Amino acid sequence: MHIEPGVVDAAKIVLSYATAAGAAGYAGWMALNAIREQGVGSLLLRSGLATAAVFTFFEVLPHFPVGVSEVHFILGSTLLLLFGAAPAAIGLGLGLLVQGLFFAPFDLPQFGMNLTTLLVPLFGIEALARRIIAPGTPYVDLRYGQALALSTAYQAGVVAWVAFWVLYGQGLSVGTLAAIGSFGAAYMLVIVIEPLADLAVLAAAKSLRGLRGSALVTRRLHHAA
């Protein structure tokens, strides 16, 4: 999902500063809510774990260039279900920043675009989760269909934002549409794998009774809303 250097030139890239600032501001508002719910210590712990997970997703798990960008196993819905929306957002942002600072400095000019691409779909599936998961249902009791819906929505959001940045930067042409299409098709692999990863993680969390009420995971993992 990384936007490649040169896709959006310097004159246009200023838009990404605005979208990233908006996404960061919303993540900050969610972080305040998370502090009220579980305390600042829990937020820091969950954000740290999410950051480590995101860095692993980006640098350790397989990733490969396809079309206009790269396909990564981001597992955004997994982060949401395990740590909650605010820690997941912080983890995505910090993981992306650490990768850029130490391993891919050529990605730093595109940080605003990449941050927007990761966070806005996360906010979307957080809202979707409230609609499709009953308030009395802990996340550990999710069904496959619900996990699939969250994963599909997140990956579709990532693909949509990548398509937006490419069309914004390069304009509409047969070549760009073909490249976007191949990139989107490749993400179908992630949609196949991610719901299974979600259910595996949730099953493990359900069996580990010590996590119930732990500051390491979101309260909703084991409890009703």
Layout: helices, strands, pairs:
Layout: H1 14-38, H2 40-59, E1 64-66, E2 69-71, H3 76-83, H4 85-102, H5 111-132, H6 144-170, H7 174-186, H8 188-207
Antiparallel strand pairs: 1-2
Give an overview in words.
This protein is an all-alpha fold and 225 residues long. The chain has a single domain, classed as Arp2/3 complex 21 kDa subunit ARPC3 (Orthogonal Bundle). 68% of the residues lie in helices and 3% in strands. It contains eight helices and two strands; from the N terminus they run H-H-E-E-H-H-H-H-H-H. The longest helix is centred in the last third of the chain and has 27 residues, at 144-170. The mean pLDDT is 91. Keywords: Cell membrane, Membrane, Transmembrane, Transmembrane helix, Transport. It is a multi-pass membrane protein. InterPro entries: CbiM/NikMN. The chain crosses the membrane at residues 12-31, 43-61, 73-98, 110-128, 148-168, 180-205.
Keywords:
8 helices, CbiM/NikMN, two-stranded antiparallel ribbon, 225 residues, cell membrane, mainly alpha, transport, transmembrane helix
Distance between the termini: 32 Å
- Beta-strand residue fraction: under 5%
Q: What is the residue-mean pLDDT, rounded to a whole number?
A: 91
Major sheet characteristics: 2 strands, antiparallel
**SS summary, helix count:** 8
Poorly predicted ranges? none
Helix content: 55-70%
Question: What form results from the Cα inertia axes?
Answer: globular
User: What's the arrangement of strands in the largest beta sheet?
Assistant: 1-2
How many beta-strand segments? Answer: 2
Gist of the model:
The chain has helices at residues 14-38, 40-59, 76-83, 85-102, 111-132, 144-170, 174-186, 188-207; strands at residues 64-66, 69-71. It is mainly α and 225 residues long.
